[in-house]
Every structure is written in C-alpha cells, then in structure tokens.
Amino acid sequence: MAEGRGQITRRAGLRLWLAGLWLTALVLAALLAPWIAPKDPLAQDLFLGRLPPFWVAGAEPGFLLGTDSLGRDVLSRILYGARIALVVAVVAGSLTCLIGATLGLLAGFLRGWVDTVISRLIEIWMAFPPVLFSILLIAVIGPGLSSIIIAIVVIDWTRFARVVRAEAMAQGAMDYVASAQVAGRRRGSTMWVEILPNVLPTIVVLLTLEMGIAVIVEAILSFVNLSISTDDPTWGGMIAEGRSSIHHAWWVIVFPLITLFLTVLSFSQLGEGLKDRFDPVLR
C-alpha cells in the first residue's frame, strides 16, 4: 500500500514538473514575444511564401520554422498566438471559476430553494451543445477577444457549479461543520471559513482543466473565423490556413498543432498532478 502511494506521488510530481515546465516556458515566450520573435508576425512577403524550416533544403536564414503562403514567419506567429491563447485561458478560466464555484458553494451548503433554483438552471444550461452554443453566442455578439471570453464563461460555469455543489454537500455533512454551528458560527461564516478551504483543492484542479478547455475553444473559434481579426496570429487560424497547403507546406499546420496539443496536455496534466497531490486519501 505504501509503495503504491509512493508511485502515485512520484507520477504526480513528474506530471507537475513537466506540465509546469512547458507552461512556464510558454508564458515567458508570450511575455517576451516582442523581443524574441524573429520577425513581425503580420509582415507579408509573397516572394518568401512557404519557405521550409531551417533543417529542410531550400530554407532561408532567419525563418526557423518556415513561412506560410503569405510569407509570414511561422515561429513569430506561434509566439504571438500564445499571448491570445493564454489571455483567454487565464481570464475566461478565472471568471468561469469565480461564477461557477460561488453558485455551486451556495447550492451545496445552503440547500433548500437555493439549491433547487441553481440545480434547475444548471440542467437547462447543459441541455445546449457547448460548441454550437458558443458559435451562436459569437455570431450574436460579434467576434472579438472579449466575445470569446464571454462565450466560454456563459457555457462552462456549469462545470464548476456541479462539482463544487457535490463537494460542498459532502463537506457540509462533516462533523467539523456541525461543531462550528454548535459553537455559534453563522451559516455564511461557516460556508466561507470552514467549507471553502476544504473545497479549494478541487476548485484549483478544475481551474487548470478549464484553462485547457478555454484554449481549445479559442482555437476552434479561430479555426472557423469567429475569433479575433483573421490577420492577427492565432493557433486555430494558423491551423485553418495550413489545412489547404498541408501537402506542399506541412510545417504551417504541424507546428501550431503541436503547440496547441502540448499546451492543452500540460493544463490537463497539471490538473491531474494537483489532484493527486491534494487528494486527502493519498495524503
């Protein structure tokens, strides 16, 4: 038993390190993009269109990952695309967490009519297909970075609300909650001081997973031209553009796909690692 727990802890630590290393590198690359990007991500030169990466015959100096059909540097566009992806991940994930976790905490601890209203609202919201719902919202409110964030928050708050509600109910049945109420602590104070700290590890795990989902949603909307301006570098837009030239310039679609995959995987593994690390049974 102890050996099994040790193996799980080591695997969790490895996932945390690898995921944290990639995400840290990505954040630094996004912050330093104006200084480390080799080219202007919007600069076009049709004479340099579809140049291959530096290790392939026919490459040009200064274009490490090649160029797209308009002669724009792929590496520079990936670096600037990381800024958009991370802004969406952090802002949309945080707002979704704040709204969903608050509603879930209220429903799980207060019970009664509050739980009934929030639960029915969750069920109604989850009846809509999330991807189609997000596309509909963007079509109504118009494309843009703020529109993407609003769409993600409106769709995904239910994920936090359901899980946090269940956790709050489980914690509310614990003896320490009854002891706090017997000692005269008010219900609101009990919820924020006693329940919330014990639910917080679950919220943190959900937050990291939601950030990965937000990156995917932004890429999907960029892929169908419902994100920000088509000229601005986004990973989804690069993938959509590279799809038409995959047989002639594979690097245009492959490198953004790899970056997107590693980013989403890192958020997922960070969440799994935090879950194993904070799991009270394993501790």
Specify the helix fraction band: over 70%
- Evaluate the radius of gyration: 23 Å
- CATH homologous superfamily assignment: MetI-like
Question: What name does the CATH topology carry?
Answer: MetI-like fold
Q: Total strand count, please? A: 0
Number of domains as seen in the coordinates: 1
Helix/strand-derived category reads mainly alpha
The proportion of residues in beta strands is under 5%
What are the segments in which pLDDT stays under 50 over at least 5 consecutive residues? none
Q: How does this structure look, described?
A:
- There is one protein chain.
- With 283 residues, the protein is an all-alpha fold.
- The protein has one domain: Orthogonal Bundle (MetI-like fold), CATH 1.10.3720.10.
- It has helices spanning 2-31, 33-36, 74-110, 112-126, 130-141, 145-172, 175-182, 187-223, 235-243, 251-278.
- Helix 3 runs antiparallel to helix 4 and helix 3 (74-110) runs antiparallel to helix 8 (187-223).
- The mean pLDDT is 84.
Features:
single chain, 283 residues, mainly alpha, MetI-like fold, 10 helices, 0% strand, elongated
